[in-house]
Amino acid sequence: MKKDEKKKKLLIEAIVIIAVILVFAVVVIVDTVRSSPSVDLTVEQAQTLLDNTFEMVPNSVALTANHVVEESEITVKSVKNGNGKEIIFECTYETVDIQSVYSENKDNLFSSAYDFYRAEKDAGRMVNATKIRQNFDNGFIEVASKGEKVSGEIDIYVYELEEAAAEEDALAMPFEDTILRVYLSDEVINTVFGGLLNVCNDAINTKEFSYNGETLSIMNLTTLKRGISDCFSIRNFSIDKPDSSAYFVSIWNSFCDEFYRNFIKNAQWSYLAKGLLTTIEITLLAALFGILIGFICAIVRCTYEKTGKLMILDQIVRLYLTVIRGTPLMIQLMIIYFVLLLPVGIEKFPAAVLCFSINSGAYVAEIVRGGIMSVDGGQIEAGRSLGLNYILTMYHIVVPQAFKAVLPSLANEFITLLKESSVAFYIGVADLTQGGLKIRSITYSNFMPLIAVAVIYLVMVLILTRLVGVLERRLRKDER
Fold it and tell me: How far apart are CA 214 and CA 308, in angstroms?
């Protein structure tokens, strides 16, 4: 009968899970279908949108960049819809091969700019990036006007933006009842403008060039390099690509992007891995020493309560338990490290282990004391009747029974210690929490790093809780 009820319960659970999956799948499909573009652009409208966008790309003072844009011709041949709320312009282009012109004449142009820079300096006049740009612009435009033309085909993507996203987008343009933005990636800019972006980056990063047959270093001449690179300056066109996916797909894409930015990029997950290892080391060492301290304190207290001996030690232990259990762990940690150990040069890791050991030992002491006191007094009398003294009776008879009784409680104390070890970051220990905060300081993202730390702690606690449950069931079987 019980087997039939169990099968019925499993069948109902399976049906519910399948139903939830089907409903979610239908919602995603419907949402995807609804995410198609809401506007139909003609080729003429697409051309106007593209022309207006490209006019905004060069800085107004960058004459060379403006010259390249004016000499370039981008023509929309056809318009089609993409997979999401995106429109694809199939274009042809013809432009000056600016990268080849720059590469072939770089040394001469840089030498001319350097001569101008030195002449201004020698004359005692103030020289800035604007003067250098103006001097370089004139010479380069003359050379560029004789450059060869290159042509080809390229697809340019246009996205519909939500109103909130459009407010922060400099290239967003209203069209009828929607807001559109042409996505200009590095590839698009370099292709339709003959390598303009590569030239700009090279000018910024140039460290030396050939000057009168010798290699001249300009690594420290920031003004000179900035003046030259300003000639090719273009605006911040390559912002994040708009996500035109369906709602649920967009959420998933955002999650993946955040996950990559926080953990995969530059192997930042290693901060969590190293921090986790440190947390486990602190917890294991503190648990080991805490159990040792707790057992010693518990035996001292139980000895005094049962025999009246060790009164002074009992008073010391009581004071220790009162202070440790009555003050916050974080305050104990900072006192032990900043007040006691830092002045004598002891590192953060041993300070954390010492603090958590002392703190855990106070709670273990009461757990063990309760276990020892729960052992029937007749057990001690039985040991005495066998000729054992008090110490041997405690060692061979009382403590083993008490340890078995308090083992689940000790395991739970270990779980608590694992979570409390997270405050170690207050003294600069590179534990799991510190690893999450390190990622947070790099990416300026609060949600993903902190949630990751919480999830890792939760998984460890669930594993330990499961093991404690298995241990408790095993002990109950042994009792039977």
Answer: 94
